[in-house]
Amino acid sequence: MDNFLKMTSFTTNILTWYQSNQRDLPWRAEKDPYLVWISEIILQQTQVKQGLPYYLRFTKAFPDVYALARASEQEVLKLWQGLGYYSRARNLHAAARDVVERLKGQMPETKKDLLLLKGIGPYTAAAIASISFNEPVAVVDGNVYRLLSRYFASSLPIDSTEGRKHFDALAHQLLSKSRPADFNQAMMDMGAMICTPAQPKCNDCPVAAECQARLLSQQALFPVKSKTTRKRNRYFNYLIAENKGQLFMSQRQKKDIWKGLYEFPLIESEKELTRAEICQMVDSVSQASMTTSLMSETKHLLTHQNIFIRFYKIQQDLHLNGPINRAFDGARLLAKSELIHLPVPKPIETALKRIL
DNA sequence: CACACGTGGGT
DNA sequence: TACCCAAGTGT
């Protein structure tokens, strides 16, 4: 079979498989560009199982771009709480206001114009343009890299510039120009349901017959990645200071994890600190004998770092006369009823549940 | 352009 | 346990 016929059969087989195996997902019914947009942002680096409940709550609260633009950033972050990658929420909110104010509420209809919006990169722009407006552009995400690298048994690293260009070109060659929406969603469903990272279901795969990795029994060797990850440890010592039913809380501002979210006053260190050292640090600034007690500790595993978290309860109410420690700079005393509305990181959410 | 950004699930 | 992975983007 020559290359042209092989490519044609790949596209045909993928489309046919999709017709009878596609997942029933809420944003697929109307292809409303706003709903597709929300779904694509939520599903970045996130599996459907994890993102779906967020999509349902989010679109119920903000059914259209105007509702989202009207909301405050904090309201948007609160609905995003627990999903991670919070810049997605902040960018989405900013872009919604951009669409309402600059584009009179009309979503851009081409990949080129969609790319101008905050938080929309090559993948998301192609997804919205193809799914909602039938533009013949291929989506190239982790699913597509994995599927194509296996199908062609290509050892080009998917995290290299050359590899990305190669698979992008391949995806565009294989793309159905008449049914880009179906083809792109078929590729993603294939990657999520059949050509999975571990133990792919090759027996159910519509293109298994020509899959080079399968012919070599080397599915597990693809895709190839060149970079290695190394982790650093961080130690977060949170000070829980309660005063007359109120709690000290501060908002993370720096260009760092959990930007914009709220937390307890924090002493961060590169190495593990003992309870005595924490006490000493607090006492030296407050010039008083402050005692703390360790409430609990958790471990947070991230892509590039491990965060070891300890929660200390401040025993005495000696912080009445202002900040007792640099950790309390910028901290505000908030009533428990207010805390419920603050967006907080997962570990803080867990701690608050115990306290409140 | 290498790196940071979250959380949950799998091996 | 300690990794890896998941519908990527911004800087």
From TrEMBL:
SMART domains per the UniProt record, alphabetical: ENDO3c
Annotated ranges, domain HhH-GPD: 42-193
Cofactor, free-text remark: Binds 1 [4Fe-4S] cluster.
Any one GO MF annotation of this record: adenine/guanine mispair binding
Gene3D superfamilies from the UniProt entry: Helix-hairpin-Helix base-excision DNA repair enzymes (C-terminal), Hypothetical protein, domain 2, Nucleoside Triphosphate Pyrophosphohydrolase
SUPFAM superfamilies from the UniProt entry: DNA-glycosylase, Nudix
Key words of the record: 4Fe-4S, DNA damage, DNA repair, Glycosidase, Hydrolase, Iron, Iron-sulfur, Metal-binding
Cofactor dependency: [4Fe-4S] cluster
Biological process according to GO: base-excision repair; mismatch repair
CDD domains: ENDO3c, NUDIX_DNA_Glycosylase_C-MutY
Record EC number: 3.2.2.31
Reactions performed catalytically: Hydrolyzes free adenine bases from 7,8-dihydro-8-oxoguanine:adenine mismatched double-stranded DNA, leaving an apurinic site
Pfam families: HHH, HhH-GPD, NUDIX_4
Family to which this protein belongs: Belongs to the Nth/MutY family.
PANTHER family linked to this entry: ADENINE DNA GLYCOSYLASE
Record's function text: Adenine glycosylase active on G-A mispairs. MutY also corrects error-prone DNA synthesis past GO lesions which are due to the oxidatively damaged form of guanine: 7,8-dihydro-8-oxoguanine (8-oxo-dGTP).
Protein's name in the database: Adenine DNA glycosylase
